[in-house]
Records
---
Amino acid sequence: MGVKKVVLILAFLGFLYLDGLPHCTASEVHNYTYILKETNFTRLCSTKSMLTVNGQFPGPVLRVKKGDKAFVTVQNNGKYGVTIHWHGVKQPRNPWSDGPENITQCPIKPGKNFTYEVVFSDEEGTLWWHAHSDWSRATVHGAIVISPKNGTSYPFPKPYAEEVIILAEWYKGDVKEIIDEATATGADPNISDAYTLNGQPGYPNNCSIATTYRLPVIQGKTYLLRLINAGMNEEMFFAIAHHKLTVVAQDASYLKPINTSYVLITPGQTMDILVTANQSPSHYYIAARPFFDTNAPFDNSTTTAILQYVGNYTPPSSPSFPTLPNITATSAVDNFTTRLRALASKDHPISVPTGVDERIFITVSVNQLTCDKASCGGPNNSTLAASLNNISFSTPKIDILQAYYRNLSNVYESNFPNLPPSLYNFTGDSNDDLLLPSTGTKAKIIEYGKRVEIVFQGTSIENPENHPMHLHGFSFYLLGTGYGNFNKTTSPKTYNLIDPPEVNTFGVPKNGWATIRFVANNPGVWYMHCHLERHSSWGMNTVIIVKNGTTSATSIRPPPANLPTCS
């Protein structure tokens, strides 16, 4: 079934003031229907049945304008419960439609449906939606395209055309069976068998050359590529042979344009990239391959597509291939990410909190738990785990949002700490005493309106690596990153308080730190987690609860009538 979309124009004069920010009340309401169902797909010479939305991989594009609203009815015709998350959409006062399973809702059961109310506010650019249940997002995901509202335009010349580019991972096996087996044994989940670009592995993968995705372009025209990393566990380098990339936005927030030959994009991140077809008419490879800076197993393959010029010419027998950084090239990552700066213009201003009311310091670690059965698949007969501030998150059976809203007991604890339980040489010590975390369902409670700073500190425990962290319900300013241990005296002197990028997902460097800052002006229950799916499955998560303000306009909205039940 295709996407059904009805647009209702709600146009009237005036402005709605929310949290001191004016929003034009003229907006559109969109209605979509997403059917979750099993669909057969053939890749890498074999066919499998997998969960999809509307039979598509990737799923359908959700298109809105800035400030619009979308009602998305999700009908689950699959075999198990699923939720959908609208990644990067702040959902002001509306955590009920945010989507993470057993955090803000219980799953939509097979045969049932739920209508999400997706409320857009100041986002403009590219975001994405994905399943937020176990590993089902591997096949259940798609783009969100947020165009400028009527009467406004891009802060750059309007491109001739635009195209969504989604990077993902392909597993020959059933992804739910893969994570269920890993959870049962305590072992590392199987790695993917290939990466895909708009659903196709491309050259040089088996049985993939004929089905390689092709992007037709006209010489002399400029195109806007909406790049999304929907991959499960790997950050990716991306490039186009002989073509420069101009990055103009990240996570639906505009940047000062960056001219580059490649980008680094983590799982969960989105980027808007301008590409001008200024080469001789021919075929040119678009390619992506992982950046990997740890010792764990990973998929060391490459996915490709073809940038194909329109016209009469003899195509090359072997298209030009881009020069991508080495898989372990940390310097290439830094050379790109340190150039990211918010546009910070009159039409697209930023508002960096200059003071801090609440300081939180969070260690980010991969750990081990003691085996609770005859044998386990982790190192030294352990169960692999992960933690924030040495607490490995346990997902409850009843969603935390309902428990908070209805004052239900024995679902979560409201004592997630502002500091780790002990201070040590975070990036130098890795002894066995640090491997074992505590477990629990702990949330951090924050008063409405507080200015919050969170320092994420990577550790050298187990297998350290770069961690892409994501906080639901907010965009925030990435003030700075560095290597080694965060120093409360010297590290803040390196902060960018002038034009830091406003993002929803960011990388904590291997054996390093990253600092974000935001105002807690969105009441609700908001999930915070590593977007490497294996780490999230192991417990590298927590929940931030922002309390209501003093008015109804600064308080959580009442729940919808048809929330999925938790039985």
---
Amino acid sequence: MAHSLKIFCCFFFFFLFSTLSIIPLSHQLEQHPLDSLTPNEFIRVQAIVNQSHPSTINDITFQYIGLNEPDKQALISWLQNHRPTPITAPPPRQAFVIARINHQTHELVVDLSYDNIVSDHIHHGFGYPLFTFQEQNRASQLVFNHAPFLAALNKRGLKVEEVICETFALGWFGETKQNGRVVKVMCYYLDGTVNLYMRPIEAITVTVDLEAMKITHFRDRLVVPVPKAAGTDYIESEQKAPFGPELKGITVVQPDGPSFIIDGSRVRWANWDFHLTLDARVGPIVSLASIYDTEKQEFRRVMYRGFVSELFVPYMDLTEEWYYRTFFDAGEYGYGLCAVPLEPLRDCPANAVYMGAFVAAQNGMPIEMPNVFCIFERNAGDVMWRHTETMIPPDLITEVRPDMSLVVRMVSTVGNYDYINDWEFKQIGSIKVTVGLTGLLEVRGSKYTHKDQIDEEVYGTLLAENTLGAYHDHFISYHLDLDVDGESNSFVKSKLETVKVTDQTSPRKSYWKVVSETAKTESDAKIKLGPDSA
């Protein structure tokens, strides 16, 4: 049976504006079925959900609102019959909503064509929806009116006005009973630096029930020295000499303007054509990526849909205040919600063009997110292909094709880490996905000032006095629905196998051959990274 190849890829880490005109969505002839919700659609969705639960309107919080992805086959059929003139109607435009209503999680589908709710399902299983920024901020502020917490700060000689707090998900470790929507609150100390993550206030546990929005547990286990502020500030103007050699500037100039065209959410460059949107949970979504075949005079499908499925960040620390730090940066905090405005000439080169997006606030109203994407052509001086032929004397034939690519970039700052997410489209027909991991370390305060003092498991490396760098991982999983020349795709694993020459057919003692295996299930397609040749 024909099927689309869906791959869940996992990456593991140890540790002047362009004048290109962008055609606004409102100026397009029509809305694309995969376009993100517009501000007006967010407002309509909020009104429809509120009207459906009039008696609980004050108890409704919108944890997520996004496009309810249309049926794939319906969309492909519409696309095939759409050009040059539309023959069939586009798939129904719907929104998917996750809302907390009367302390229950509702999963709703809202039909925007008829302004009604077509599905309202109450989730009774494990897990909870995304946190909103509003509820995280409220929870982290509760401690400043909690007398035991203020007493704990006073005991440590800390000034309350220099304290910053944030919330942490509890994690799940096989418990059969759910803990409810509960978070832990951890605090940091500024007083001489903006690098709050280098100055944790350790051994204080504050538990907050998000539904009741109150502190349910407090414990001050012991006093641990707060690491020093000296040398931790990263603000450029605060850096002290000596500095390294100053580099001369490099300017990217395209005198004829960029080679790409942005039409609403559609991007066209060289032989590539794709659709780009932002989702609050997963961040950038690249859809309908196709490449133009100049010989066949048609676009050939490459990828139906691609996005970050999850970012899992487990810390390897078993202490009471750290064991639960096993973060799902997309599922708990929102990879797209945490997208930040990109800094021109810093995050992106001078030839970049910027795109904004909208997400929903806790009350369901739209929030504008400017400059969350930058799109630019990259010429890093690399070579796409070359050859020098010396075997046809007296001629010396040299042909070189410089490498040019198109980059779509988003930066998501989830707490202390900044993820630089690039989708790079190459002229050779490949798509390269990279995630640059930068930002700040989340350290744990410690009584130790020198590594020779350590006589126990501390789950990290002593970086400075009273400062432990906690061991942790970053697992980044991708959802890739590949439609290479259509849906009849298979995933083939090829391994190199050594063959011994046991007869006298060759002086060689061995050679290798390729052994291929077609995966029948997703489990078959698993690849164990290691030294094996593949």
---
Amino acid sequence: MAVERLLKDEATEEKGERARMASFVGAMAIADLVKTTLGPKGMDKILQSTGRGRSVTVTNDGATILKSLHIDNPAAKVLVDISKVQDDEVGDGTTSVVVLAGELLREAEKLTNAKVHPMTVIAGYRMAAECARNALLQKVLDNKDDPEKFKSDLMNIAMTTLSSKILSQDKEHFAKLAVDAVLRLKGSTNLEAIQIIKKAGGSLVDSFLDEGFILDKKIGIGQPKRIENAKILVANTAMDTDKVKIYGARVRVDSMAKVAEIEGAEKEKMREKVQKIIAHGINCFINRQLIYNFPEELFADAGILAIEHADFEGIERLALVTGGEIASTFDNPESVKLGHCKLIEEIMIGEDKLIHFSGVEMGQACTIVLRGASQHVLDEAERSLHDALCVLSQTVNDSRVLLGGGWPEMVMAKDVDNLARRTPGKKSLAIEAFSRALLAIPTIIADNAGLDSAELISQLRAEHHKEKSNAGIDVISGCVGDMEKLGISESFKVKQAVLLSATEASEMILRVDQIITCAPRRREDRM
């Protein structure tokens, strides 16, 4: 019995086959969970949290779904991680990467049951992934030099990304918004400069792109409603010191007159601070904290627009966009960088008043205002748009483009199959399995659209054996279509990330032969 007692009482371990079995099953379950969201006809999931408020999320984004799940299975956690990384790295393809990894493991399970050693499978997968990547590299299109063509590529990529999301009905409209916003960035992948404001009401088609910056605040009372050639001081400071602030302080005074003196001193202090701020020669003061009515009055007298309680993200972005810095002390005006913009005015969106800054320093900045029926619609629209923006900003840097609709998978599968025929030994089984896993993606796209996937995939395969084929699945008409004519394209970077992450994740799970679960820490009796 001495051997058994290696681990603590409640720790469990799974060995060999059983461990591998557990990890395969977990990973495949996760893949099956998200695979119905794949493709233009993919469905959405409702995620309801059990916490307070029972918040409900309706989403189609693989990473969002997986992030919200609490998972016990260790292998499934690996898949959740790769989808998170895919989301941070390139923004789109979060579902594909999980599905592909799941399929690779499903194939690997068959092989290990047929007594092929996992290391052999891994070696085969490595070769296959390399081969698949090269296949894509040969077929890639690059229209960097022709701005017109490149812009249409970007439009197509945006429409393809959006077509599996809630925005698919108005995808032209949103693709245009996204492309315009990203082209303004001029090649930087910093999406901070694109602000997305969500306003319930109206419908999704009413969304628009506004150059400049919109702050979700109202303009104070009795203050100028529009300012031209604004000099903006962005600050984070307390403007509420006309009351005694020392809590629990007891001030003994002989008469009411003395109280008035104290209050007067406080007011003086405030007035000095305001004077210092005005000395910067500004005509717009934006503060992150609240501004009491006394200093607000002083600002209004000086003809300065004062905005209080600007939310923090808004204020940081505002400082970034107008080229100013956030100040908290005002003693030396020369060292503070002021922000500039051509015009500040109040605009109405739906029911709400917002403040609009136009002609800002950073030409890249813009604001996308989303309108929609309800908060859930808006949240999902924002996620979809964020995916599109990420993919586009990556594509602007790495302008290589592929066709979509299952075309890249077919191209890769064809080359990988050829490699399998040339490779001697058991590795060839793994390489063949890899190509079957790649075919799963177009299969699932077809299945989700309710088409006969077996029929379609065999037609596709036949098409791809001809030279230079552009065949992919046309979900709308339900048959094999020409992807170039339909304008369905994807970013090379996304596809490559999907391929490599999925391969690496499945490799990692394949290497497992033992799962040891730690014993929970006992709570000692504190009595």
---
Amino acid sequence: MPAGGFSSVTPAGVEFEAKITPIVIISCIMAATGGLMFGYDVGVSGGVTSMPDFLEKFFPVVYRKTRNPGIDGNYCKYDNQGLQLFTSSLYLAGLTATFFASYTTRRLGRRLTMLIAGFFFIAGVVLNAAAQDLAMLIIGRILLGCGVGFANQAVPLFLSEIAPTRIRGGLNILFQLNVTIGILFANLVNYGTAKITGGWGWRLSLGLAGIPALLLTLGALLVVDSPNSLIERGRLDEGKAVLRKIRGTDKIEPEFLELVEASRIAKEVKHPFRNLLKRRNQPQLVIAVALQIFQQCTGINAIMFYAPVLFNTLGFGNDAALYSAVITGAVNVLSTVVSIYSVDKVGRRVLLLEAGVQMFISQVIIAIILAFKVKDHSDDLHKGFAILVVVLICTFVSAFAWSWGPLGWLIPSETFPLETRSAGQSVTVCVNLLFTFVIAQAFLSMLCHFKYGIFLFFSGWVVIMSIFTFFLIPETKNIPIEEMTERVWKQHWFWKRFMDDDEVAAVTNGDIAKKNGHANGFDPTSQL
């Protein structure tokens, strides 16, 4: 239901008739390959930055430190701003691209925005694989970042809008599942290419990103745009035809009318970003921003970016480090599958709260082990402890993968009303990429200065985010997107106070309009 106290076309609580049609499944799988590309970019950077040939060519200072650990010690041998910039530049570019992606998502549609992302990915892959110097390498990463900005803006919205309500959570998590598959694929590729002699293994690692890039581009060419997007752009007949096709039934009139009504209200909002700051939109905005900050402050991307580097730091050999990264990548994939099956059954809150406990315990134990066993210039991490560290990191990764990973994207994409959805998703992606950039740019320096305390730092954030979840994140499972205001925000113990004033204003203005004899023409957003 649209926000602002406006009456829905259908009564609150009605679930629209929808079959799980092949076209929905295929469209969601094809669209979610944007996550595959994102995941590959996340996973591949940590692998190539641990390859001696890559370091010798682009980062000779780091190469010399890895050859002679006595120079800076175990925790500091990879501490280099240029090396961190190689990883983080992608996310800074994605942050900038998000602003443009918000416009294209709204004006050109979700499908075309995904196509633009595919073209950026392909260009970035070509430059990275053929890089001759650091500048060429960074420009390639920036183009990949632009692709990430466009894909992360369009794909979660597309998945939320095209999926039937009862399986929306599971289908939306396909994006996150493909992120984890991309990370695993990158880890496997790195494990193989690290063994290539001749100094070109890293080129193959970066070049194989072309596979998910081509899949996303092909997918964007084949899928239909979402009915919400078509109706939003005034193509009502086409939107109705697509809705009928994806729902697999002719009984789509109630849902179609609600989408048209939501679109009408959305068009009356001339400044969606400014409208995000309105009182009635603050709950969705606060939760969306908090989820992105907390998602990065779990420390997951630090581990996923730099898994081989991290395991090298802890005293694993290069092969063992890459192999351990493959194991954590596989756990990541399997745990995300758990989320797909459980998110629409047990709900969002249960997964977030359970994961908080699991992540906190595993990080604290890792910190204790490293405090006693891994020093600056000596590592006494015997095989038993090394295996235990890998198991604990896998425990941490699995908790994240069925909670904060997918739900950090799912919850914002399903809670914003249509009139601010594109702007809200833009802010969501923007904040996520900003904090991803900060963590990526700072992690190796933090590891150098905090040492084992880095895990205690992230575990402290896990406590904070679990408290926030318990008190302030409402349950949204099995609730139609356009009915979130009535059934979620107006029922929540804290957030309902942000809805009261708006509801009173709507009723008061409605009474005035009736007295003036033009109730039917009343604009419910005119007072916003």
